[in-house]
Amino acid sequence: MQRLDNKIPAEGLGVKEYLPPYLNPSIQIKDLLTGVCFASAGSGYDPQTTNQTRAIPMLDQLDLFKEYLGKLETNIGEEAAKEIITNSVFLVVASTNDILFSLPASGLPDDVYDSMLVNLTLSFVQELYKMGARKIGVFSAPPVGCLPVERTLQGGQLPILESNLPQSRIAFVDFYNPLIRIINNPEKYGLEVTNRGCCGTGLREFSYTCNQLVGTCPDDSKYLFFDSGHLSEIGCYIFANLTIPDLVENLF
């Protein structure tokens, strides 16, 4: 699933076929020049999230980006590196795992955790800005709950942050509403099943529990979800077609 998350935005934005992971030991300078992926499946804004998922924490991902900047400057010079970063699009996709794992474990009221998550999101975007990023897309959480964090970010906090960061373009990418539209209108998007995944029963199998022992559906192109928590390949493409045009309009 991580490869799909890297592949489809890169294709949709016309960058290249696939964003290779920065930690790939065979990464080459040509990859650094045209875009790489720092994401770690299972991460989140809340540091407690990665204690449960064993993913690379978001702050550590920023450290990797800083390391990347050093490599870029060494190979092409500081000015050329700055130009690349200034004109690049940064996509930040997080919060789902925070809501699934860290919110219940925190014992905090929803509104308190919501405020904390908003602040962590804004802080992460500000750190990216300090490191040279100017075009930043921040994805909302999918329909895993109804925390007001999404309304807070879209309705005020991200636009306010953008106004305080000179030359920045910060776009809120709505994951929730497009996904609900697809779920409620499968035929419109060429799908047959949107209420369960292709893997196993489609209701509980998730990530590594989707394996050869549980099997898959005959044709995953008819399913919005591959497992109980991840979109299928066709689902990713449909979602990208619904959201990338607005993302481009807001960032350029």
From TrEMBL:
Belongs to the 'GDSL' lipolytic enzyme family. It comes from Lactuca saligna. It comes from the Eukaryota. One of its GO terms (molecular function) is hydrolase activity, acting on ester bonds. InterPro entries: GDSL, GDSL_lipolytic_enzyme, SGNH_hydro_sf. This is Uncharacterized protein. Pfam families: Lipase_GDSL.
